[in-house]
Amino acid sequence: MHIGRSLVKNAFRLPALALLATPFASAALAAEVSVAVAANFAAPMQTIAADFEKDSGHKAQLVFGSTGKLYAQIRNGAPFEVLLAADNETPARLEKEGFAVDGSRFTYAIGQLALWSARSGYVGDNPGVLRQGTFRHLGIANPRLAPYGAAAVETLTRLGLLGKVEGKFVQGENIAQTFQFVATGNAELGFVALSQVYADDKLKGGSAWVVPARLHSPIRQDAVVLVKGKENPAATALIKFLKTDKAHAVIKSYGYAW
Amino acid sequence: MLGDSDIAAIVLTLKLASVTTLLLLFIGTPIAWWLARTRSPWKGAIGAVVALPIVLPPTVIGFYLLVAMGPNGPVGQLTQSLGLGVLPFTFSGLVVASVFYSMPFVVQPIQNAFEAIGEWPLEAAATLRASPLDTFFSVVLPLARPGYLTASVLGFAHTVGEFGVVLMIGGNIPDKTRVVSVQIYDHVEAMEYGQAHWLAAIMVAFSFVVLLLLYTLNPTGRRR
Asked: Interface pTM (ipTM) of the complex?
């Protein structure tokens, strides 16, 4: 009933808007879009959103959280219009369940995994430190919840080291918490997102082995337009902006591929 | 319904809450006694420190405990020099954190009970030549019993309900640090809502029964 009514309303409004829009720049139609962003993408998204606001005149309101939590909120009526997830399963699931716009899904970034230690010189440019196994704790994001955790387990499996180091796992509920464990020295080393320890094309501190992409399936981070953002021009504009070279450059400088 | 890891989490939670409550009754008694009896100008400051965990967000406490108890933190340096290693990611670490976190819920009811006893039972005991220790065990403790009941139940229940602190310093290790609240959170994050509902329902039922017992066994709070 509600959907039917809003469709009728929009049917009247849209041509009028289109008429108004043609002669003016996009800024004349400045709208606001509410974006739910996976926590690991918080830093690059803030830069991208600032660029987007400057270029388009639209406003992007960002909400950060773990993908699982954002999923639960979206299913229960959260007013988000676009979701930038940390995986590709959640957007697909939302689309199947009718909470996302069909065919709006795309990969906006591909995460890179790094084995990192806060101590410089602790991790070499290879998995040797894992083979030696002289550490007490290996930080990892919960593989059940976090794509980076699943990728880490996959990497260890391929290296034949899972059985050797599994008993030393300390699990963060997400990649941010895993980073905390390692950054505070409580875990000597851990699998984190390269984006957490990387800026301006170099390591911010400590030592790291950037895990080659061939050792795990790609960590695809997908975006999707949610049903609530279907008619919002700012949502459409943001999706378009995420696919520009300008956005890609920002994404890459934070240690992601796309 | 419940999987093995759920059962393990329940067992671990009950163990953590029991150990924490017992420790807190021992540690909390002298603190509560001091707070109830002292005329020291430090009374306000110490009372405030004990009550801090009520106000501070648990994840904040957890994060700073992680930093303080880590290998580079002051507590971590101390435990390492004592040959105890570092506390995060261990059951002992959770106990230490829980003792700190649940302290006000144990100290305050006992302190209130001590204060309610007043001076005259102690003076009466003294005129009967009871030593201070004898007075404490034969007069004060029996009179403060309702306070102890409240303190035990609140301390236990608060530790069972603890989440943010454990999440921060636990590392989610089965049988060591994966307690019920973390397990429920994991189920929700993994979108396994069915299992989350089961565990949560058990927790609600348990909490209700515990509080019901408290209020039926201890209807008037403390007596004079």
From this structure: 0.78
